[in-house]
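Why Xylulose kinase? Reviewers of the renewal asked for a concrete example.
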Amino acid sequence: MLVAGIDSSTQSTKVVLCQAEDGRIVDQVSAPHPDGTECHPRHWSHALDQARGLLERADAVAVAAQQHGMVALDEDGEVIRPALLWNDTRSAPQARALVEKLGGGAAWARRAGSVPVASFTVTKLRWMAENEPDNAARTAAVLLPHDWLTWKLGADGYVTDRGDASGTGYWSPATGRYLPEIVTEALGHEPRLPRVAAPAEAVGETAWGARIGPGTGDNMGAALGLGLREGDVVLSIGTSGTAFAVADRPAADPSGLVAGFADATGRFLPLVCTLNAARILTSAAAMIGADLDELSRLALAAEPGAGGLTLLPYLDGERTPDRPDATGVLAGLTTSNATRENIARAAVEALLCSLADAVEHLAAQGVRPRRTLLIGGGARSEAVRALAPAILGTPVTVPEPAEYVALGAARQAAWVLAGTPEPPAWPDRPATEHEAAPADAAAAESVRARYGVLRDATATWGSNRTDNA
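Here is what the prediction returned.
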């Protein structure tokens, strides 16, 4: 039997068709989405339509999609406005106001598992209520991107899963229940919210007769696609950077640095997300007139520590730490170290220092790494793979490049077909192991120290944008 997994990400739709019993990829296809921080959901449907022939070969299908996006629907199920995506930070003031009004970080962590920042759906609802009151008043239902696509595929009504629901800010991973008082406070009234399905529940049937899985969020899909076990820590370098691990108990971090998400299997997925990740590399490459391969070669040609250059990579604001109005800072620049090699090295070191901070935040919530896995587009950089073990302070496993979010959705679809208590045990993908080079290991402590000093010093600046409105 064949199963299809859909990854509807910020940038594109990827679909993989796999054998249900072992996950072997039979076929795959992708289509782009428009760029930006908001997107009308019809673009996701149009991208998915390009995979219709592949999808119709599947006996079961499931969707994993970008988390947090706000899809507001009217009484007739029509989209009211373009969906606000996770990377839209306009709701930062509303996030701060909601946290303060409803008791502060400790109260939010206890009730919702996370302290909301601008990425979370609940803050976007509050922004709409304050800035588009007519749209807010028309909103009869609120879905997430994967919920909307699952519904369009043929689900029986509005349905979600516990993993994606845990990123809204109005569903509790600890209790498994919605928090209607929070969504009402945000929107001004209580909308219809999707039913939270069980992890392997069939939630409907497509037009061609395939079973539909409940789907999940992208990070939960990646965890399922990788077959994570307790003690595995994943660093995913995509548009955003994420560090996450599977756990048996929910996290509740009052600082807000760790989001206490649920996963797609009935367990939990403590996660740290940075707004800037692979874009650090692409921006640095553009700065020095290089492509990504050349950036990697230049970074490896420079000495550890980039000749004293330190980049704070908050290029478009940042989520962890929560600085939505921040900009990037390049410190330590002199006439002697202003080389393409050093700038490239500083960019790679900055990316990895940011992820190393994220791993430390997970450790503070009880995660004890057994191994570190590096995935995502940024993990294809030779320089990232080479420098990661020293800066992270641990050997790094790099699974072969694959669409792990889509594979996770496909594995969920296979689970729906199997009807077993646990997901099917697909084999691990081939991987390479990387350890720190002696020179990099010796310099890594200094690199992280300089990064930490710059990070902490800029925390007192407030907004360093000139266009902050």
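The longest strand covers residues 12-19. This is the kind of structural detail the renewal will allow us to pursue systematically.
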